[in-house]
Amino acid sequence: MRNLYLEDKKYILNTYNRLDLIIERGEGSYLYDSNGEKYLDMYSGISVNNLGHDKEIASRIAMQASKYIHLSNYFVSESTINLAKLLVENTFASKVFFTNSGAEANEAAIKLCRKYGKKLSEEKYQILSAYNSFHGRTCGGLTLTGQDKYQNDFKPLISGVDYFRYNDIESLNEKVSDNTCAVFLEIIQGEGGIVEISQEFIDNLNELSKRHNFLIVIDEIQTGIGRTGDVFAYEKYGFTPHVVTLAKSLGGGIPLGAMLVCKDLEGIFEPGDHGTTFGGNPVACAAGEYVVNEVINTNLCNDVKEKGNYLLSKLQKIKEKYPNIIRELRGRGLMIGIEAGEYAGIIKETALNKKLLLNVTNKTIIRLLPPLNIKMHELDEFIRLFEEILAEI
Ligand SMILES: Cc1ncc(COP(=O)(O)O)c(C=O)c1O
After folding, report:
1. Before 156, cis peptide (omega within 30)?
2. Would you report the helix, strand and coil content of the chain in percent, each value rounded to 5?
3. What digits encode the pLDDT tens for the residues 281-335?
4. Pocket residues: Cβ below 6 A from ligand 1
5. Pairing relation of β-strands 180-185 and 126-130?
6. How much distance in Å is there from the Cα of 285 to the middle of ligand 1?
7. CATH number where 12 lies
8. What's the CA gap between 354 and 343, in Å, rounded?
9. Residues 133 and 49 in one domain
10. Less CB within 10 Å around the terminal CB: N or C of the chain?
């Protein structure tokens, strides 16, 4: 019999730590292995399968694929337009540029911001980003990712980028000048351990942006499209960014990213300034149209808020019972971080034995990103298993 785990090691470059678990199919909030065993999926492909393993997405994909799969960006395409229209009519965005991934959405934003700055002054090219952020692995995205562990082996990266401490107003103030063309920011640092930005920081950023005429780019690649209980995580702060980048759940599991821009930025890119062969692929956008419609035009976001509060209240009780293991709970909606210190690894391993799939980020944080439409009894199943695991260790 084939051993796919070993074959993967043999043929694919060793850049990922794979699980020795062969999945055959997914359904709702569960994955099923080759022995028919059922696993509760509490991280949804790292916030990609936000509607769970959904058969309707598969049928939208099949429907578009049966018409045509790809035409090239010389052609207009109905599903691509439909998705852009949904985003424009329901968000701050005035226009959309489609990419294939989050890193590429941030690359597009870097170029847009640089061109915006250049139109104002030759010196206006500085981009600022936060320490401990994550914005992707391409050279531009990696430069924005303010973490030595990801950057060190690949320097020199792109020039003209500097960093501030997340949530530290003084640190931002020190770095900003009239030469700043953009500040990139995650509303909740996902990879960085589920850490949320403060209202004071956003208010200050907004004021600086007006004073120094730079763009605010909000990376909603992990937080966006309903994950926190709002369409975008920035909404609760009462401000409007100039640019938002999206990916992950946007294509329902098919590679798809987007850069959304406000009205004033519509004219920055001209034909030939930017492009990608697959960006806005009709099949990916057919899936995206379904996903975004579900998030915008159903009660999903309210459900996410309710389920998030329920989950946090249950976890709070567990934290009180096991204060030595669970040190802190962070996040909102269905993006929750459980600070478990040195116990995070063993919790994840024990969970796998109990057919519960957990993700750990930044070594010590259990990052919960369940499907947004997870059922209440499935959340209860998670709570029961999680408590059982803590009792065991
Ligand atoms: C906030 C954020 N930005 C950018 C990225 C990069 O996206 P991709 O892996 O699709 O390039 C990620 C991926 O984890 C992310 O969480």
Report:
1. yes
2. 45, 20, 35
3. 999 999 999 999 999 999 999 999 999 999 999 999 999 999 999 999 999 999 9
4. 101-103, 134-136, 186, 190-191, 219, 221-222, 247
5. parallel
6. 19
7. 3.90.1150.10
8. 17
9. no
10. N
